[in-house]
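Researcher: Sequence recovery benchmark, item below. Answer with residues only.
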């Protein structure tokens, strides 16, 4: 478990530092970037939020609040509190047209910055839990690497960056957005900002 937690945070940090991000959309307080490497597509959503970074961190690291702003989350319950900083959740998401509803078993690792210039981190990846085997009513999907980095911009504002490395399991949700207007990603980002503020 210690290794999983470490690699969860390390993978997100590595993804965030990769060179070669292309900006695909820029609005007043939301920017959407993509990164392609072989068959792996990653995207980054950068949001300017008028709350202190520690407030954004405490709200975004509690995934049971996620349904309030992310309509892709149908249900989200804590399966196991591994430690103060790690929790395992079971998430279900609404069915897309022509697709079965999906579910995920995810490890969420939260880290406070060790040094002032470092971001707050909320890292997410799929894990396997014997107690929650795949069920016939859901298509069990996998998250390779996702999460938030929250950078302070001073005492009352911060930049929230959401990262997601896309696998075929999540593709139906994103394909339409990235090729088309990226409207759903945008709408979710605006809902997230509204929720945090």
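Model:
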């Amino acid at each position: 478990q210690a290794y999983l937690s470490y690699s969860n945070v390390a993978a997100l940090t590595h993804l965030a530092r990769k060179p070669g991000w292309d900006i695909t959309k820029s609005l007043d307080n939301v920017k959407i970037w993509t990164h392609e490497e072989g068959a792996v597509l990653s995207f980054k959503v950068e949001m300017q939020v008028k709350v202190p970074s520690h407030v954004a961190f405490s709200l975004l690291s509690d995934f049971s609040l996620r349904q309030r702003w992310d309509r892709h989350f149908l249900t989200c319950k804590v399966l196991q509190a591994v430690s103060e900083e790690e929790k395992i959740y079971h998430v279900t998401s609404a069915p897309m047209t022509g697709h079965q509803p999906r579910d995920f078993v995810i490890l969420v690792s939260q880290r406070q910055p060790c040094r002032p210039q470092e971001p707050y981190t909320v890292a997410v990846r799929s894990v396997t839990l014997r107690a929650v085997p795949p069920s016939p009513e859901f298509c069990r999907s996998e998250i390779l690497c996702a999460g938030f980095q929250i950078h302070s911009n001073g005492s009352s504002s911060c930049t929230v960056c959401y990262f997601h490395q896309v696998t075929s399991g999540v593709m139906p949700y994103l394909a339409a957005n990235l090729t088309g207007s990226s409207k759903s990603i945008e709408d979710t980002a605006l809902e997230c900002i509204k929720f945090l503020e």
